[in-house]
Amino acid sequence: MAAAAADLDLSPPEIPESTFLENLLRYGLFFGAIFQLICILAIIFPFPKSSDTDSNQSEQKNSEMVRKQKVVPPQISKKLKKETKKKR
Questions:
Q1: Domain coordinates of the chain in residue numbers?
Q2: If DSSP codes are grouped into helix, strand and coil, which group holds residue 12?
Q3: Taking a C-beta distance cutoff of 8 angstroms, is the pair 51, 43 a contact?
Q4: Please, what's the largest Cα pairwise distance for the chain?
Q5: CA distance 61 to 69
Q6: CB within 8 A of 26, min separation 6: which ones?
Q7: Which cell locations does it reside in (predicted)?
């Protein structure tokens, strides 16, 4: 039995040291996996928008609405005037 154990080589196999490109690939894959997990978590748990961007967007929408409201009434009145002239 001792002779059988002596015949088997149980030492760890010789593994060559990894090269720079292998290390770069390994760490790049780790960072890519972490980035994908962050993206998936961002989709599952969306973060609320900050109040600064909301207030800026609401101000822009309000100013656009005011501009549209100012432009719309003259067009309606022109159409009404044209229709009244056609009726005469």
A1: 19-46
A2: coil
A3: no
A4: 123
A5: 12
A6: 18
A7: Membrane
Please give the C-alpha separations between residue 71 and each of 17, 36, 65, 68, in angstroms, as whole numbers. 74, 48, 10, 5
Q: What CA–CA distance (Å, rounded) separates 59 from 44?
A: 30
Helices (H) and strands (E) in the chain, counts: 3, 0
At 7-36, the pLDDT tens digits run: 787 888 888 898 999 999 999 999 999 999
Measured distance CA(30)–CA(38) in Å, rounded: 12
Give SS3 for 48.
coil
pTM, two decimals, is 0.40
The per-residue pLDDT for range 28-85, each reduced to its tens digit, is: 999 999 999 999 999 999 888 776 555 556 666 666 665 655 555 556 666 666 666 6
